[in-house]
Amino acid sequence: MYHGEQGLRHLQTAFANFFSGRAKYPNFKKKRNGGSSEFTKSAFKWKDGQVYLAKCTEPLPIRWSRQLPLGCVPTTITVKLDPSGRWSVSLRVNDTRDLKLKPTNKLLGIDLGITSLVTTSDGEKVANPKNLNKLRKKLRLAQKSLSRKTKGSNNYHKARLKVARIHAKIKDSRLDYTHKLTTQLIRENQTVVVEDLAVKNMVKNHKLARAISDANWGEIVRQLDYKAQWYGRELIKIDRYFPSSKRCSNCGHVVDKLPLSIREWNCPECGSHHDRDINASINILRMGTRVGVRRKGTPTKKAAGLAVSVCGATVRPEESKSRKAGAMKQKAPSSDVKESRAVS
C-alpha cells in the first residue's frame, strides 16, 4: 500500500474519533512541527537487516539504537521528522519473546511529587532531576532571540531550529531518566501501587503547571503500566481522591487540612511524626482505615492498593460499594512492539 493511502486511513480514523466525541476536529499539522509518513509491507522492503523504502534503490542510513529481536520482521515502518530537524524511524514487529521475570514477594507504594519525584513506602526518595531548569536560561535566551527575528526569514528559521534543539535535549533527558526509573521499579517489585492522578486537570494550576509537566507523572504511570505487562508484574491504581497525605499511617486519623507548604506533621491523635511524602506512600500501600475484604470467610484489614487488587473496592471514605473500575485489569502483553531507530 502506498503511504498516501495510509494517510487517508489516518484521516478516516481522525474523523471517526471526532464524530464519536473522542477527539477534536482534525486539522493540518504545521510544517515547522515536522511530519511523519507510515509505510506498510507493500511500500518498503526489509533485506539483510536494512530498510528500503518504496522507489528507493539505496537503504536508509540508519544508526540503530538496538537490534530487532531474532526472527522478527517489520510489518509497518514510520519515518518521522521532528521540529529540531532530526529524522527517526520506528519499526513495528511481532515480538513473541517471553519477557516475564522471576516472581518476587516485594510490594511497593509510590507517591509522586515535585521536590522528590518518587517517594516509596520503604522510605526512599528519588530526587527530581528538573531537566527544564537545567536549560531554562539557555532556552529563554534562544526564545528571546527568536522573537526579534522577522518571520519567514533565514535568520528566523535558524533561530527556530536552535530553540527546537534545546527543547529536544530537554525531552530526551527527561524520557531517558523516566525509562531508567520505571524499569528499575518494575524489575525490583512484584506489585507497584500508585495513585490514579488526573494530570490534565492538575496542570490547570498555573503556579504548578510547569513543575508538574517537567516531572512527567503521566508518562511515569504509563510506562509502569505497559512494563508491568511485559515483565509479569502487577500495577494497581487507587482512587485519586484517597486522602493519602492527610491520613495518619499509624492510627488512621485524617486531619482536616494539610497545605502543600507543610512537609512534616504530627498526628493529633497518636502523636506520630510523619514525613508528608513517606506517609502518603505508606497509606497508598497500607491504608489505615478498615476496608473489609472477605478472604476465606474472615474480614481483614487490607492496604488500599491491595484491597483494590482483591475485590475492586473503592477507597473513597464516603463510598462502600465494590467498584471493579478501581482495579486495573491485567492484559496479556501486546505482541506489537515499536522499535525506535535514529537515522544518521
Short description:
This protein is α+β, with helices and mostly antiparallel strands and 344 residues long.
Question: Can you give a write-up of this model?
Answer:
This protein is an alpha+beta fold and 344 residues long. Among the domains are: 3-97 and 336-343, no CATH class; 107-238, no CATH class. It has helices at 3-19, 131-134, 136-147, 154-188, 199-202, 209-215, 217-230, 276-285, 304-311, and strands at 35-39, 44-47, 50-53, 62-63, 76-81, 87-94, 107-112, 116-120, 125-127, 191-195, 234-238, 264-266, 273-275, 293-295, 298-300, 336-343. Mean pLDDT is 81; it is low at 287-303 and 310-344.
Mean pLDDT: 81
Can you list the strand order of the major beta sheet?
1-5-6-16-4
Write down how many β-strands occur, each being a DSSP E stretch of 2 or more residues: 16
What is the tally of helical segments?
Answer: 9
The fraction of residues assigned to DSSP E strands is 15-25%
Structural class: alpha+beta
Terminal CA distance: 26 Å
Largest sheet: 5 strands, antiparallel
* Weakly predicted, low-confidence segments: 287-303, 310-344
The ordered string of helix (H) and strand (E) elements is HEEEEEEEEEHHHEHHHEEEHEEHE
Helix content: 25-40%
Shape: globular
CA radius of gyration is: 24 Å
